[in-house]
Specification:
The complex is a heterodimer of chains A (about 325) and B (about 220). Chain A is mainly α and about 325 residues long. Chain B has one domain. Chain B is about 80% helix and about 0% strand. Chain B is built from seven helices and no strands. The longest helix of chain B is centred in the first third of the chain and has 29 residues. In chain B, about 45% of the residues are buried. The model of chain B has no long low-confidence stretch (mean pLDDT about 85). The chains are: A mainly alpha (about 325), B mainly alpha (about 220). The interface between A and B is medium-sized, with 24 and 31 residues.
């Protein structure tokens, strides 16, 4: 099933279906992660669907905007949300095929992620409040360090499969079967560190804190309320699921469905769920056993990710 | 299948060493050493089961019990007692050490290509990882001040040699392995006591202060 043999309508339908699935599953995954984290702290934790209820509540609330805010402030969450949703159509999940893979590969994905970050950071600067500026500056610092590591990890996967198109990449590695090269392990480790940074997870940021001096992502979106905040939260949840999907698809090509036969599809979905859950549990494990790094130590962690990425790429040539 | 698993574990060990270079908290370094030994033990166990080399199973169990559990536990107790949690000022800062270690890993990997018998396949990857770990371990020993980090670097070095022996050859005789394990545990005990003594004497784990003892 290559893009040329299927028609445009079916592709658009597949893209919408995948985006909707991501939008629905991302808050559930967030709820699961919170539940697991609470279990580590011997707490009961909120309900599994609490992130959903939060989103519904926020969507129904009045939005407050500062009188000094311009259209940039209003556009921020929308562009962020839209770019995350668009990125879901580029990543193969349960099937070794991404709906919009004809549009672009690895570079387009990185560009969409960067666009979302740029939109939020400029919006945070727009109101001129000190917290927004501080948060934006921190987010961009982390982002500038995470992005090259992300690209190196993705390029390593691309180099081993011989394609920079994510769908093609997953198809080829699924065809080849499981054959592990050390560079894949290093690249996966680099991508995992990037995932922690981009998802605002503990060694880099604390998603549960509202302590002014330590927050990064939360400081940036501090001034949003109502539907605007809902869009930001939802977009972040989708982004996290996106990274988990990417990690699972590129470095654990086990059980991916290569055809649309019902059994292959069922196996693909089950394998996808299992891989994402396993990776999410790993995130929880890291988050529960590590302390948050001081902000000026974060570059050292990101340097490790970058180093692992470089090394992974270099090892491909031996 | 087993070969893939062996490469997975070996590469995991390399990642753990690089993470050890990349941070300063002693507790995390000790945990990383535990993970590294765990991977080594699992690797030896997998090779033993697949190749019906029963003495490797003994090695695996010894590694898991001694290096993945007992030694990390003992070292955590040592730092708990002396109350020193971080590597404050290594001789080289983290980014510079990382860049150098990347270079060392590339060198180690490149060297393994030169070995005629290990030109390709699993031995090549495993020997490459092991050589890189030896170099990075030596580097860590030379550039860190804290006695605990130096002990961890020595133990990493030992793990690397073990990895090469297990992954690239048919393995060492059981007697030799038992002897090495016993040596390692004794070395750690002695070094742990030494750390306590150094801290008692200088109220610091900084080994460079030992040079003030020269007459």
């Amino acid at each position: 099933m290559s893009p040329s043999t299927t028609n445009v309508g079916a592709l658009a339908l597949a893209a919408v279906a995948q985006a909707v699935a991501f939008l629905l599953l991302a808050p559930v995954l967030r709820g699961l992660v919170r539940k697991a984290k609470a279990a580590f702290q011997i707490r009961e934790g909120p309900r599994l669907l609490q992130p959903f209820f939060d989103l519904v509540k926020l969507l129904g609330k009045e939005r407050m905007r500062s009188t000094t805010a311009s259209w940039v402030f209003a556009a921020g969450p929308r562009v962020y949300f839209a770019s995350m949703v668009a990125a879901t159509a580029l990543v193969p999940a349960a099937v070794a095929f991404a709906p919009l893979e004809a549009a672009g590969g690895v570079l387009l994905l990185v560009a969409l992620l960067a666009l979302g970050r740029f939109a939020l950071a400029t919006a945070a600067l727009d109101t001129g409040s000190p917290f927004g500026g501080m948060g934006a500056s921190r987010e961009m610092t982390v982002g500038a360090l995470a992005e090259p590591a992300l690209m190196l990890a993705l390029f390593t996967a691309g180099l081993s499969a011989g394609s920079l198109n994510l769908g093609e990449l997953v198809r080829r590695s699924a065809e080849r079967g499981v054959s592990i090269h050390p560079s894949a392990v290093l690249a996966a480790a680099a991508l995992f560190i990037v995932l922690l940074a981009e998802g605002g997870r503990v060694p880099v940021d604390n998603p549960a804190t509202h302590l002014e001096l330590t927050m990064i992502h939360e400081a940036m979106v501090l001034e949003y309320s109502g539907a605007d905040l809902a869009l930001v939260e939802w977009g972040s949840a989708v982004k996290e699921l996106l990274f988990l999907t990417l990690l699972a698809g590129l470095f654990l090509p086990i059980g991916v469905a290569t055809s649309l036969a019902p059994t292959a599809l069922a196996v693909g979905l089950a394998a996808f769920a299992a891989k994402v859950l396993a990776l999410a549990f790993l995130v929880v494990l890291v988050e529960s056993t590590n302390a948050k790094l001081r902000f000026f130590r974060v570059p050292e962690l990101m340097a490790v990710a970058l180093g692992l990425g470089f090394l992974a790429l270099a090892m491909r040539f031996f | 299948m087993v070969q893939d698993f062996v490469i997975l574990c070996a590469a995991g060990m390399l990642v753990s060493v690089l993470l050890m270079v990349g941070q300063k908290a002693l507790v995390v370094a000790i945990r990383l050493y535990g993970v590294q030994s765990l991977l080594l033990g699992v690797l030896a166990g997998a090779l033993g089961l697949a190749g019906h080399r029963s003495h490797l199973l003994v090695t695996a169990v010894l590694t898991l019990v001694l290096k993945a559990a007992l030694i990390p536990w003992f070292l955590l107790r040592v730092i708990d007692r002396v109350g020193i949690r971080r590597e404050i000022q290594p001789y080289l800062n983290v980014p510079a050490s990382l860049i150098l270690c990347l270079g060392l890993t590339v060198v180690g990997y490149r060297l393994s290509v030169g070995m005629a018998a290990a030109r390709q396949g699993v031995p090549h990857q495993v020997v490459g990882v092991a050589l890189s770990m030896v170099l990075v371990g030596l580097f860590l020993m030379a550039t860190r001040r804290k006695a605990i980090t130096q002990i961890l670097a020595l133990l990493t070095l030992e793990n690397a040699v073990f990895l090469a022996a297990v992954g690239a050859t048919v393995g060492m005789p059981l007697v030799v392995e038992l002897g090495i394990s016993f040596d390692v545990i004794l070395a750690v005990l002695v070094l742990g006591t030494l750390v306590n003594r150094i801290v008692d004497r200088f109220e610091s784990m900084d080994t460079s202060r030992l040079s003030s003892l020269r007459g």
